[in-house]
Task: structure prediction
Amino acid sequence: MDQVYWNREKETMDPAVRAQQILRDIKEQLHYVYEELPFYRAYYDEHRFHPDMVETLEDFTRKVPVLTKDALRLEQEAHPPFGRYLGFPAEDGVHVHGSSGTTGRPTFYLFSKQDIAYIRDVMAQALYTAGVRKRDVVQISTDLGMFMGGWGALWGAEEIGAACFTPGAGNAERHVRMMYEVGSTVLVTTPTFALRLLDTARSLGLDPVRSPLRLGIFIGEPGAGIPGTKAALEAGWGIKAMDCATTSEMTPWATNVECEERRGVHVLQDEVYTEIVAKDDPQRPLPEGESGAVVYTHLRRKGQPMIRFWSGDESRMSTAACACGRTYPRLPDGVYGRVDDMLILRGVNVYPSAVQRALLEVEGLGSEHRIVLTRRDQMDEATIRVEYDPRLSEGGAPGDDRLKELHDRTHAHLRAVTGVRFNIEFVPPQSLERFDVKARRVIDQRSTS
Amino acid sequence: MDQVYWNREKETMDPAVRAQQILRDIKEQLHYVYEELPFYRAYYDEHRFHPDMVETLEDFTRKVPVLTKDALRLEQEAHPPFGRYLGFPAEDGVHVHGSSGTTGRPTFYLFSKQDIAYIRDVMAQALYTAGVRKRDVVQISTDLGMFMGGWGALWGAEEIGAACFTPGAGNAERHVRMMYEVGSTVLVTTPTFALRLLDTARSLGLDPVRSPLRLGIFIGEPGAGIPGTKAALEAGWGIKAMDCATTSEMTPWATNVECEERRGVHVLQDEVYTEIVAKDDPQRPLPEGESGAVVYTHLRRKGQPMIRFWSGDESRMSTAACACGRTYPRLPDGVYGRVDDMLILRGVNVYPSAVQRALLEVEGLGSEHRIVLTRRDQMDEATIRVEYDPRLSEGGAPGDDRLKELHDRTHAHLRAVTGVRFNIEFVPPQSLERFDVKARRVIDQRSTS
Result:
């Protein structure tokens, strides 16, 4: 018989009691990093911060300086390979991984046996929250290489006792065929690759709704938190699509995870403490519900712990009750933007994910698009290049009337949602390249045009 | 302080005592598979074999029918996905993998928690025998996907407590750069990819002899057992190159492994019992030293155990003492051929690995070649297409005299080693494609020409 919770007492705890526990953990962790990790000692001294200055959770936000990726990179360059925040002798490390920087030196992670045991347990709680059970076959359709995404999922699913199936990198056709052969019930991958596998299954003459899958756990991109994408994944595969993940620096990175109610991601605050702060002031906490920058803190990891890590993500938080009974707060819309990915078009802030959301709401459009930015006479031009629905071209290319009407609806809806007048350009179905891993839909030609 | 052995008592046991233990394990395993696994019951009944018929190790060879890959494939097709030799309820499986068939349905492996614990322990013994220690950083430069190679190495290295670094699939440049950044001391990969990484390191202006590597563990191909390839790997990287591996069906597949004496691979007979039998009669044992087909048996695995698995590999065995003190027998030349990969050219048996070995012995040749087979007037023609040494083209393309002399020496040496008159065709250095994973050097155009 299935239990609802991985750990009932922990997950349904009175939030006020949990907050006291979090504060105790924060204080202990601050003293640990200050006393044991030379990088933090130097960093905090430089910022005139001392752990004794934190008496409340608000003190924590207001007084502890945030860490950026850049600070980690510089520290590792100065003290290679792992920086002076490792927390154990390097020879006790058992797994080396890296951040997903595509160029240059990544930030390296070294995990001790103790850290991995800890990570396995938290990842198990997270995947269990999303619905993974011992009887499942969990297909992990990501490269198990440098990057942490697949590994965390593997470790959590192993801990639950599910069967893990790892078809390896690339080769969408193999991923699909093996899914049916092996009988995978859970798919872990990026939303982009899951959509690609959907196309592949159909092109192989398979009916994805009848696949053995019952659950998708989507990582690496905010897709499963975007209503249109979530709906496309759920209807396409006949599954529940669960949004999940923080960022690899925060491994166990699945501490933002959806429960079966799917009302946004629960935030496992007692493992990775998550704050929403002003985008332009990491020392300023925001009231519940306001949109801001996400800052993360490891409460228990002793190896390479991150204290107030500036993720660059944007979200808002809610403490409203969830029918699942878990008393963790939620990010009701998941992570919906990047503070630093935000586009500014003629003075208006536009998130690419908002554009994607809006396009998915327009009847008659296909599933892939680009946002092309150019500059003319010192003015930014923004063009949406979008595929039209395959059904429009049944019996030949769609007529001008049809496209004109679609153009006007698309333009109006985009303007209503984003406040920006976009140029609209239609292209045939399947003419835009699909992405295997992370989608790169913004094509910025402003410096070259 | 380093110990020499992972398990001194086991590794240095009197071979006669070990043989008694092996016989006991074989009898127990035969009764287990016959009574618990319907596939074996049916197979043995059909061959009129019963476990009670085995009283000696010779009985085992003479009376137990061998298993082929084809038999496993047919069984899994009839009883998908794992066949009736699983040995535990499918829901107790925790890892799904597959054989490395490049086309069609692979054979699937499902491992239970118990099997993985067992595999980890044996893989640790094998890697420890090859010289891996807790202080090492083990870079596993293979795809961690369907196939077992990387996974076994990972599990064994984790068990030893070494740090595992997995740079992922493809991208030779990243593998090399990260090796230097992370400080990898052990490289696990195919000989082919290790040679490719060597070229990559040089092209990046790095000196491979000064890399952090001290040890290479070579899997997936017989390369590190071929003297010329072993020497190229050792001199190129400044490492000890260890040959290792059986085949994925026999996971823990590293039970053939070199010790630091490097006098061929030790055979861990008390885990995977290994026989050398006549190539045309799997029921006929061969005397020590004779070249024959290799047949493997799991003595302890309870999930998907292989009993007398016909690997298709060719080797010979020696029980001569090894200076390391281990009392396991050895395959002094490793696995040097495939019974079924053997080429028959004008009535002569030729192993591609023998050609490779001969070419590496000719001064003036480069490091890559092809064997091109064509047919003219009902006669097989065999052409060796081989790169010449880069030093020959210093100051312009090599002269005809130079190439004529090289041609004659190559032709004569190949004929002496293989008994075949090959056509020789020279191509410039680096003009033949390098292989990332498994080399495919035989180009058979006999059906099309």
In short: The two ends of chain A are 62 Å apart (CA to CA). Chain A has a mean pLDDT of 91.
